[in-house]
């Protein structure tokens, strides 16, 4: 029985480390060729694709399109309130938003939860200070071929897309480079 408990804890730890699959709970890591800041194989097909556009509602019910932020550097984050690695990114995103506030930078956090009221409560309780869009119908998630969350994309001011998936630090480094 003790062996079974240890195995279960190890499996749960691996799931938490590698991210959350919005459909099944956890997913194995994906890989990308060394030196390629472009998308991994589960993301848009060619490295450094331009951003696919979508329109979703924010938490106040306003329609927002990704193209509204053309000409800005955008951090596009796919996440859910129930995902531990996603929850861990929230303070980092708040700090990043504060750091670049008033500059040509925008965080667009696409939430995949089904219940918008849970998302609103989570955003309020965590004092989220960046834009949250709700994607319960998986419109943007399907467009960006999201296979696990968190998935992080950096879009430069020319619309060039870079994928970092769960590697928030790498995404932050790219943003710093682009914001110089």
Estimate what percentage of residues fall within beta strands. Answer: 15-25%
Count of individual helical segments: 5
How far apart, in Å, are the first and last alpha carbons?
56 Å
Which second-level CATH architecture applies? 3-Layer(aba) Sandwich
CATH topology: Glutaredoxin
CATH class label: Alpha Beta
Shape: globular
Q: Output the structural class.
A: alpha/beta
Strand order of the largest sheet: 2-1-5-4-3-6-7
Give the rounded overall mean pLDDT. Answer: 77
Total strand segments = 7
Estimated helix fraction: 25-40%
Instruction: Specify Rg, calculated over alpha carbons.
Output: 16 Å
Q: CATH homologous superfamily - what is it?
A: Glutaredoxin
Residue stretches low in confidence (pLDDT < 50, at least 5 long) are 7-19, 21-47
SSE order: HEEEHEHEHEEH
Fold and architecture overview:
The chain is of the alpha/beta class. The chain has a single domain (2-178), classed as Glutaredoxin (3-Layer(aba) Sandwich). Helices cover 33% and strands 18% of the residues. The protein is built from five helices and seven strands; from the N terminus they run αβββαβαβαββα. Strands 2-1-5-4-3-6-7 form a seven-stranded mixed beta sheet. The longest helix has 17 residues, at 2-18. It is globular, with a radius of gyration of 16 Å. Residues 7-19 and 21-47 have low confidence and may be disordered.
């Amino acid at each position: 029985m003790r062996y079974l408990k240890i195995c279960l804890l190890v499996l749960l730890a691996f799931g938490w480390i590698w991210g959350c699959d919005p459909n099944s709970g956890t997913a194995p890591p994906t890989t990308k060729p060394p030196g390629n800041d472009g998308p991994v194989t589960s993301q848009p097909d060619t490295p450094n694709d331009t951003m696919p556009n979508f329109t979703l509602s924010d938490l106040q019910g306003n329609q927002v399109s990704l193209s509204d932020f053309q000409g800005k550097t955008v951090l596009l984050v796919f996440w859910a309130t129930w995902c531990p690695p996603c929850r861990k990114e929230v303070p980092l995103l708040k700090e990043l938003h504060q750091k670049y506030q008033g500059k040509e930078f925008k965080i667009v956090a696409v939430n995949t939860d089904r219940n918008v009221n849970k998302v609103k409560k989570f955003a309020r309780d965590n004092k989220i200070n960046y834009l949250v869009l709700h994607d319960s119908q998986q419109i943007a998630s399907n467009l960006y071929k999201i296979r696990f969350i968190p998935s992080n994309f950096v879009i430069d001011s020319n619309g060039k897309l870079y994928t970092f998936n769960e590697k928030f630090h790498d995404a932050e480094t790219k943003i710093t480079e682009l914001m110089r």
